[in-house]
Amino acid sequence: MQIAIDGPAGAGKSSIAKIVAQKLGLEYIDSGAIYRALAKKMLDSNIKIEDYASIKNAMENISIELINGDVFINGVNFTPFIRSSEVTAVVSPFSAQTEVRRKVNFFLNSYSENKSVIMDGRDIGSVVFPNADYKFYLDASVEERARRRLAEIQYSASLDEIKESISKRDYNDEHREVGALKRVEDAIYIDTTEMSMEEVVDKILFNIKK
Question: Strands 70-73 and 134-139, how do they pair?
Fold first, then answer.
């Protein structure tokens, strides 16, 4: 079984997907964590995000592994370092690059082959798993998404700063040339603004079991 969950930043995709995975006995894959880990690897290697040639070369010599939900790049666990402000600031333009998406999408398809998985991101239902058994698109107001992100970040920021950051992220994600945030026609739309996590999970499970 393949379940795709797409939606903008802060819509609750990862938290919801983890719970659904547990309830259905699926493996949860956080595609965003992989992009963040790669972005952190570039920063640590002193490669500028706009240095496309260097990033393209770097992607050819990088190995990605998922071990118990953690992302390993060239054998190093980057998961503890991917939620920093420096990574958040660059992950959107970095993940929009063709070579980066090609690398990650190839890994995701190879890793998920012959497995039952649930994956969240921006283009899972449209690009990564276009033939997924179930597709969902989670959304919420910018205000609500900013409040959620404020509660989970590991650095100091105001609600207004996060709202501005999310709005910019939405625009960038929607206007990418490759892997743009997109709600596909066969995805079930769920506005989570005034819903609890349990309510969203129940709605997803209802549609799957139906």
Answer: unpaired
